[in-house]
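FAQ

Q: What does a record look like?
A: Structure on top, sequence underneath. For example:
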């Protein structure tokens, strides 16, 4: 990898993440290792480490680095099985794969799923499974999941995802309207849903049953 990108990656971690309160060393180390520039179009690579989201085609985006780090930190991944809803570029998938035992990721758009799968495999990750489908329905055959990360905004916690969350599990999901959401941590404690808010955010829509219709 280019030395300039390596320096930019380190600067991103120090200035955008650590200085803004991300303290989980597993997350910081993961984001030092994943080459974010490979997950955006070549024409946008010089902007890959900016403090903002970027388009990845299909009217989808790669999230701002800080949001990726915050969501991963809230998830408290450890050596666990994670379900990711919304593979997108595969960048968040790769960050999770650096920490988790196993990552199952669902993407509704076939072209994005294939591109992410090829890139993740080319980088040597062997603990990632990507499939095309309605992420709000989860992945019943692989449930329960210790952790669930949803990278699209919905009106409420999709019932199938909560059902597939293991006892004492954690889910991070943006909840709100079709334009603005609140980053929400959902925990399953003695069979009860315990919810806490962690700041405003803006994601593309979670589409399909148990989400937005279009």
């Amino acid at each position: 990898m280019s030395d300039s990108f390596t320096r930019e990656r380190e600067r991103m971690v120090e200035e955008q993440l650590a200085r803004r309160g991300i303290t989980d060393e597993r997350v910081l180390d993961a984001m030092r290792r994943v080459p974010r520039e490979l997950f955006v179009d070549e024409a946008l690579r010089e902007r890959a480490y900016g403090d903002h989201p970027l388009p990845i085609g299909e009217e989808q985006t790669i999230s701002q680095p800080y949001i990726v780090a915050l969501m991963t930190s809230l998830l408290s991944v450890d050596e666990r099985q994670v379900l990711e809803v919304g593979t997108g570029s595969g960048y968040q998938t790769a960050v999770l794969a650096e920490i988790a035992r196993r990552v199952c990721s669902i993407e509704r758009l076939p072209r994005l799923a294939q591109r992410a799968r090829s890139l993740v495999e080319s980088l040597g990750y062997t603990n990632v499974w990507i499939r095309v489908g309605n992420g709000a329905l989860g992945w019943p055959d692989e449930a329960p999941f210790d952790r669930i990360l949803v990278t699209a905004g919905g009106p409420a916690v999709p019932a199938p995802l909560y059902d597939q969350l293991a006892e004492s599990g954690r889910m991070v999901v943006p909840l709100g309207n079709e334009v603005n959401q609140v980053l929400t941590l959902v925990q399953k404690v003695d069979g009860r849903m315990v919810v806490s808010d962690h700041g405003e955010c803006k994601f593309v829509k979670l589409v399909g049953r148990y989400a937005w219709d279009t």
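Q: Is there anything notable about this one?
A: Residues 3-201 form a domain with the Rossmann fold fold (CATH 3.40.50.150).
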